[in-house]
C-alpha cells in the first residue's frame, strides 16, 4: 500500500507541482489549502507525512506543526519556508519539524527529503542491525525507535532520535556540526543552525540542567560530543 502524504499549501500552482512529483514517486497524496483543513485531514485519516507550508490562512504552519506535535502518533513534518525567514525556520525546528526546504525549491529535492524522512520513520535502514544503547538511565532502542530516561518514554522527533542515537553510538567523540548535518540529516550542505536547534531541544529532554549539560556537551571551536555517564 502506498504511503500517504498530506500537502498543505495555499498556493495552488506550487501545490499542483508538489503533488504531481510525489504521486510520480509512488505516494498517495492529499492536498488542503489552510491550517484548519490540515488538522481536520490529519484527524480524519492520519498520513505518513505532512508537507507543510509556513504561510497559511486560518492557522499558520507554525501553529499546525505545534498541534501535530501534540499528537501521540508523531506524524513527521517537512516544512516549506520563505528563503529569508531564518527566525521562522528555526522556530519551526524548535516546534519539531523534521526537515525543511526554503522556497523556491526543487520538487525533486523535496521528494528526496520526503523519502529520507519516511525511511527514518520506518526504523533502521536496510543492512543496519537494531541496537539498544544504554547509559546512565538513558536507553535508546533503535529498532522500534523508543527512547527512555529512567524508565519514562521520551517524546522525540525523528531527527532528535537519530541525533541522539548517533552521538550515543560514538561516546566521547567530538563531531563538527557539518559532520552531524551529513551523518544524521544526509545533507552535504545546509544551515548548520539546524544542528544547534536540535541539540538544544535534546538537552531540554535528557539533561537534568539543560543550561549546564552533562551528556551532550559543547566542544568549543569544534561542535558536540556525547559524554557517557557510565564511563
Number of strands: 12
Strand content: 15-25%
Q: From the 3D coordinates, which CATH architecture of the largest domain would you assign?
A: 3-Layer(aba) Sandwich
- Terminal CA distance reads 46 Å
List low-pLDDT spans. Answer: 124-128
CATH superfamily of the largest domain: Response regulator
CATH topology of the largest domain: Rossmann fold
Number of domains: 2
Rg is 18 Å
Q: What is the molecular shape?
A: globular
Sequence-ordered SSE layout with sheet pairings:
Layout: E1 4-8, H1 12-24, E2 28-32, H2 35-44, E3 49-53, H3 61-69, E4 77-82, H4 86-94, E5 99-103, H5 107-121, E6 132-135, E7 138-141, E8 146-149, E9 152-153, H6 158-169, E10 175-176, H7 177-185, H8 193-206, E11 216-219, E12 223-226
Parallel strand pairs: 1-2, 1-3, 3-4, 4-5
Antiparallel strand pairs: 6-7, 7-8, 8-9, 10-12, 11-12
Question: How would you sum up this structure, described in words?
Answer:
The structure is a single chain. The chain has about 230 residues and is an alpha/beta fold. It has helices at about 10-25, 35-45, 60-70, 85-95, 105-120, 160-170, 175-185, 195-205, and strands spanning about 5-10, 30, 50-55, 75-80, 100-105, 130-135, 140, 145-150, 150-155, 175, 215-220, 225. It contains eight helices and twelve strands. Helix 6 packs across helix 8.
